[in-house]
Design brief:
Length: 447
């Protein structure tokens, strides 16, 4: 298992029906793959991004385990990883959005046994929404309900035409549903954004917001929904759009039979952050005085929603959790990975399926490069290059079965195309967990 085999030349053709694409949060599970040896040669129904995900997949011809940059037996890597994690005083476990929920569950267990700090990539995308859910709650629905009922579809700070190419056709705009039999003709699409994106071109109404005014816009809509009189000059000054436009939008929202707001990182990662998400969630709740209205974050990575779910089942919080005292503490800004690293607090780390060395701040990257850490990735990345123990793992969905969560919190099974010569991160994490427990003298559980 230490070295990957070369791609099989040729090989029998096989068809994998209803395979699942994990490239984006739509998690399309209707892809028919044509597989020859260890190469996917066709991905029927996949969008341009899904096609690239499947067809460009290559088995990495590199060792399954490197310790300090040198090839090593996987068993030695597991032993060294367990040693690093068990000895650390402030270990950090981070990533998790591009792997199965089964692996996520084991990673949370390890964090628990070692009293670690646990965080996922949610903290750098929809973390503010995770905080807002706890304050305001979420009026939610499945994408199937959107498909069958949605007649007022609002995209706010999201651009699915480019980030989730099948969102419109599979779920939100085009499909003919039970209560929207004429598909697109039965739906009104509104895009609210600071620039005219590709999605805006597909909308019936495009509302171009003044940059960084999402909070003011959401509260303008909330006020109008309650019938509160507003100063037209101030509204236009604050939002960049006239009061009449917002009044018209509220009237349309009230008249809808089933509305949904999909919001993206244009809302969560701009001025206001969690206060923006809270305002949109509260607006959705307000609209339910008049009609049925729901709201969903438009999630990016294949199983980032699974990471939120698993971490929340196990700890009660979705991300940024510290387990050092033997019980979970949630404090974004304090226990989020970028902050823990930038303050120089962690003394070891385990990075699963993410690349902080490519996208964290300079102080965070600098500190990570000074501590021993373990990385799991199907490919070589800046993070795997500096890892003390770097595992090359099989790719979830293509080589590894398991479960992922679609952006609407619906769990979807994976149907892999072919086996990889590399181990799965699940098998490695289970082996590391076993050794961590032995080192910490934690007895196996009964039953
Ligand atoms: S929309 Fe997303 S999940 Fe569906 S095929 Fe395209 S990239 Fe894959």
């Amino acid at each position: 298992m230490e070295t990957a085999s070369n791609a099989a030349a040729g090989g029998e053709l096989k068809i994998i029906k209803d395979a699942t694409c994990t490239f984006c949060g739509c998690v399309c599970d209707d892809i028919d793959l044509t597989v020859q040896g260890d190469q996917i040669i066709k991905a029927k129904r996949a969008c341009v991004l899904g096609n690239a995900w499947f067809l460009n997949h290559q088995v990495e011809n590199r060792p399954s385990c490197l310790v300090k940059g040198k090839p090593a037996p996987v068993e030695f890597g597991i032993k060294r990883a367990a040693e690093i994690l068990s000895k650390a005083r402030y270990p950090l476990i981070y990533g998790l959005s591009d792997t199965t929920s089964e692996s996520q569950r084991v990673a949370v267990s390890i964090a628990d046994w070692i009293g670690g700090n646990l965080d996922t990539t949610t903290s750098v995308c929809h973390g503010p929404s995770g905080m807002a859910f706890q304050g305001v709650g979420e009026v939610t629905c499945s994408l199937g309900e959107v498909r069958n009922r949605g007649d007022m579809i609002i995209f706010w700070g999201a651009n699915p035409a480019e980030s989730h190419p099948r969102h419109f056709t599979k779920y939100s705009l085009m499909p003919k549903g039970m209560f929207v039999p004429n598909g697109r003709k039965d739906r009104t699409c509104v895009v609210i954004d600071v620039r005219k994106t590709k999605s805006a071109k597909a909308a019936d109404i495009f509302v171009q917001l003044k940059p960084r005014s999402d909070f003011e816009a959401a509260w303008t809509l909330r006020a109008l929904a309650q019938g509160i009189e507003l100063d037209p000059e101030q509204v236009e000054r604050d939002t960049g759009q006239p009061l009449e436009l917002w009044q018209d939008l509220v009237d349309r929202m009230k008249a809808a039979r089933f509305g949904v707001i999909f919001f993206g990182m244009g809302v969560t990662m701009t001025r206001g952050k969690h206060a923006n998400s809270e305002a949109i969630l509260a607006l959705t709740r307000d609209m339910n005085q008049y009609t049925r209205f729901t709201c969903k974050p438009n999630r990016g990575h294949g199983n980032v929603t699974g990471a939120d779910n698993v971490v929340a089942w196990r700890t009660g919080f979705p991300f940024g959790v510290n387990l050092a005292r033997g019980y979970p503490r949630f404090n974004p800004g304090e226990y989020t990975a970028a902050d823990v690293l930038a303050r120089g607090e962690a003394d070891a780390a385990m990075i699963i399926a993410s690349d902080p060395m490519a996208n964290f701040s300079e102080p965070a990257r600098q500190h990570l490069s000074t501590i021993p850490y373990i990385s799991f990735d199907p490919k070589e990345t800046p993070t795997s290059r500096s890892a003390e123990v770097a595992f090359t793992v099989a790719t979830y969905g293509i080589n590894v079965p398991g479960t992922v969560y679609r952006m609407d919190d619906v769990p979807i099974p994976l149907r892999p195309a072919f086996k990889s010569p590399h181990p799965s991160d699940y098998d490695l994490l289970v082996a590391i967990e076993k050794q961590v427990r032995e080192r910490k003298n934690i007895q196996p559980q009964e039953g």
